[in-house]
């Protein structure tokens, strides 16, 4: 009996040793619904899914180049250039540095890359189904008409712009400056139908350049919303630049913060209030402003925060007076011997004053702008300005906005310390 038991235990142990863990070898990878042949199975390391780079990226149309001297791999496709180095915590996407949640690794001479990197930067739609141990990759694009269905052309008696349908019951978001000082509006929908009826302002945040409208039209097609934004992901801006309805431009997210999204998708006059979609066809922002080669959108999360407790007829906007208040969300980050500062942009501010003090409760004086000369500062992205922190003493900063030579109150004071 003991001999049989020992034999059974030995057999059981051998089975355990030869069985592949489900997390390591049983991950299915599908491309457009079909199994994708892989040079090496996908695997999990430290709770991170890794896939073989060459097998997946070549299937997506990328050219793969291995650099033996630097242990790095290049993936190139139609103006997109990805560079990832074995065991490095970062990679580059079109020469911009990005942080990885898991370094790439070599396994049996195969480069294995983290799934999240593929998800964010390959241009394909990638989803991980943990329950079924399946990676699903899709190159199918969202039908273009689906994107325009939720965008409306807006023509007021003052200017032309765009809007985004947020609900089937007639809720539409646009920029405040699209309806500023207006008294009438005409809206043209994707199907060509025209609305000239009653328009009511139900939500306003002029300082953030946001307006929420309600019209007496139902069965509209609302945009699908996603509040997460990923640097480097593909986006499509939809609006009516220069009056050209349903115009779509493509680009990528170049950067973002809580107030703004910068993309390479061109917009121009008339795009204001239009939609910014991610590659899934979901709404991530509202196109708002542009300057030279910078194109900005307001994160949709900020748009959705605006309360809808007003009832202002559009005709009353001709008498509405907007006076900006103190800049909000003043914040900073440290890089080397510099502190970089930013704040929420104030719509239609002509410029800003920055005040500095060197002791808590000390006297504030205007910070001089050596680049421009004088004491005028302008909002910029990703930072408004930088200041040296070589002196270990803390400094105190506050900011005001100026419009039509009228200065707002100052923002809350922020303490900058290197300690």
Q: Can you tell me the number of structural domains?
A: 3
Q: For the record, what CATH class of the largest domain applies? A: Mainly Beta
Head-to-tail CA distance between termini: 71 Å
Assembly type of the chains comes to: single chain
What is the CATH architecture term of the largest domain?
Beta Barrel
Largest sheet: 8 strands, antiparallel
Low-confidence runs: 1-24
Strand content is 35-45%
Radius of gyration of CA atoms, rounded to a whole number? 27 Å
Question: What is the fold-level CATH name, i.e. the topology of the largest domain?
Answer: Thrombin, subunit H
Strand order of the largest sheet: 18-17-14-15-16-20-19-27
Helix content: 10-25%
Give the mean pLDDT: 89
Which structural class best describes the helix and strand composition?
mainly beta
**Backbone shape:** flat
Task: Count the E strands.
Answer: 35
**DSSP helix count?**
7
Describe the structure.
The structure is a single chain. With 419 residues, the chain is mainly β. It has seven helices and 35 strands. It has three domains: 15-138, Copper Amine Oxidase, Chain A, domain 1; 142-322, Thrombin, subunit H; 331-416, Immunoglobulins (Immunoglobulin-like), CATH 2.60.40.10. Helices cover 12% and strands 40% of the residues. A hairpin with a 2-residue loop joins strand 33 (395-403) and strand 34. The protein is flat and about 70 Å long.
